[in-house]
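Per your request, structure below.
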């Protein structure tokens, strides 16, 4: 049997036989299969050659040439049907493309219909009934939005209050922990002193408990020494004192080690030089001076011949008790001390107006100026150097007032004064309440108390979100942050690091223009999260 295979051309003889057979099939003729091939088994269905040979009922698209249905893929430089960069045009791909074109056409129709007017021009105006319904619907929507806004505002307020309460709770916990730490140190000092005392008198714990506790810090340009936390005790029975230092061991263990051994000490600087320390010498802001060569101190502190401790806090309750029970502790202020205080106030008053608007730039600039001149690293300069510095920064002081100031500062008459002491005398300094928060902010950055903080950490931790100019809309958060970092970088002698005294100088200058203590403290709290 000569059948035509789709895609393969038939011979002339086969074409003639197929045409004649088609005529017979149309007339109902059936081939005699039994005569040709024998009997057909009963389970095999009869083969209808008419349906096999008819192509009228088939889809014309199903006839696909072999070369198109199974394309040959060759290398890029060959003459194959499909190149490497050409997608195969299979029936599925053709059908998929057709569907995509139909969808795009449908989307375009929808867009055109939306662009056109959906409301006929001859639509009648709504009746009063529908107008009333629309007004009711509009009022309900406005009321719902108003209630939603109120709920959102209430949630924000509650969140802010919860954050503030949690912050206050954290601060209370810190205060309680600090008080417990101080109490632990007091108990440790009592045990330590009782173990050291060897006397035949009836000295008991009650006698040692007759004491005044005070907190202190070191006045030093060395950041590590300036960050030391000190606690001291003044004993009334023999007018002796001792100082301990808080030391952190690990994360949770804190201990106090002796810093200045218990003994009777006297002033080493100022108008009371040589006088023994008394109860009246202890108040917030007082300076306690010691000869560093007579004490077992770190080498960084011994580089300065005089160690100066600033009293930052005292036990007011103990002070009141000691004042009432002790006799002869009051020391009258001398006329010379009154005159010195008056000179300081006059000079600071002259420079106050000049520093009110540019305090940060002047204070940080003066500190950097003196540090660059301090090649010997002793911090002492002559009168001529200080006069030149005042001229450079346009801080002119009358000659008479300057001479009076110099006579007070140069008590050794060697024409040398520490520039930190000179700066505090002409500009003044922030009170210890403000200073405590400045130290707290820096110690949060320098938790290891190394005395310097990388500028990268300053950039990460500083937050200007609650700055007054940001809240008022006058400046963005990024602008305030950039301005702060730029000013601080200009004040740094070592680029990339901020030392404690450079950080302190910045806020010393900022403090000049802020009269209220709480306003200044809030600036630190908002900026550093303390």
């Amino acid at each position: 049997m000569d059948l035509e295979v789709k895609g393969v051309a038939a011979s002339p003889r086969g074409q003639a036989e197929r045409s004649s057979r088609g005529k017979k099939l149309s007339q109902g003729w059936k081939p005699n299969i039994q005569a040709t091939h024998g009997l057909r088994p009963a389970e095999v269905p009869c083969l209808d050659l008419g349906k096999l040979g008819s192509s009228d009922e088939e889809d014309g698209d199903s006839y696909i040439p072999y070369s198109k249905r199974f394309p040959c893929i060759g290398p890029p430089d060959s003459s194959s049907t499909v190149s490497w960069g050409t997608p195969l045009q299979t029936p599925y791909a053709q059908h998929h493309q057709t569907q995509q074109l139909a969808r795009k056409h449908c989307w375009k129709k929808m867009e055109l219909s939306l662009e056109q007017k959906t409301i006929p021009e001859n639509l009648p105006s709504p009746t009063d009934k529908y107008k009333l319904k629309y007004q009711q619907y509009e009022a309900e929507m406005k009321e719902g939005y108003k209630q939603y806004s109120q709920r959102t505002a209430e949630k924000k307020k509650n969140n802010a209050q919860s954050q503030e309460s949690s912050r206050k709770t954290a601060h209370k916990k810190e205060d309680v922990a600090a008080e417990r730490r101080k109490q632990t140190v007091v108990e440790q000092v009592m045990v330590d002193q009782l173990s050291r005392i060897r006397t035949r008198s009836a000295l008991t714990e009650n006698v040692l408990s007759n004491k005044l506790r005070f907190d202190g810090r070191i006045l030093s340009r060395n950041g590590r020494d300036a960050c030391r936390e000190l606690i001291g005790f003044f004993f009334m029975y023999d007018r002796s004192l001792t100082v301990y230092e808080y030391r952190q061991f690990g994360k949770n263990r804190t201990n106090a080690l002796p810093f200045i051994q218990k003994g009777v000490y006297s002033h080493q600087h100022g108008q009371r030089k040589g006088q023994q320390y008394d109860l009246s010498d202890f108040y917030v802001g007082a300076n306690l001076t010691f000869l560093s060569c007579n004490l077992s101190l770190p080498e960084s502190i011994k580089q300065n011949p005089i160690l100066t401790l600033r009293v930052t806090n005292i036990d007011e309750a103990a002070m009141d008790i000691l004042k009432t029970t002790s006799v002869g502790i009051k020391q009258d202020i001398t006329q010379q001390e009154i005159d010195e205080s008056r000179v300081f106030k006059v000079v600071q008053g002259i420079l106050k107006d000049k520093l009110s608007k540019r305090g940060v730039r002047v204070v940080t600039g003066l500190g950097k100026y003196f540090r660059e001149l301090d090649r010997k690293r002793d911090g002492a300069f002559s009168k001529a150097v200080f006069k030149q510095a005042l001229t450079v920064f346009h801080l002119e002081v009358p000659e008479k007032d300057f001479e009076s100031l110099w006579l007070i500062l140069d008590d050794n008459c060697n024409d040398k004064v520490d520039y930190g002491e000179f700066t505090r005398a002409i500009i003044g300094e922030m009170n210890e309440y403000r200073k405590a928060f400045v130290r707290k902010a820096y110690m949060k950055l320098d938790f290891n108390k190394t005395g310097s903080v990388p500028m990268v950490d300053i950039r990460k931790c500083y937050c200007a979100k609650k700055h007054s100019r940001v809240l008022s809309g006058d400046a963005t958060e990024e602008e305030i942050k950039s301005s702060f970092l730029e000013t601080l970088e200009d004040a740094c002698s070592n680029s990339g690091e901020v030392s404690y005294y450079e950080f302190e100088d910045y806020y010393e200058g900022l403090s000049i223009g802020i009269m209220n203590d709480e306003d200044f403290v809030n600036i630190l709290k908002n900026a550093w999260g303390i």
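The chain has 21 helices and ten strands.

Regards,
D.
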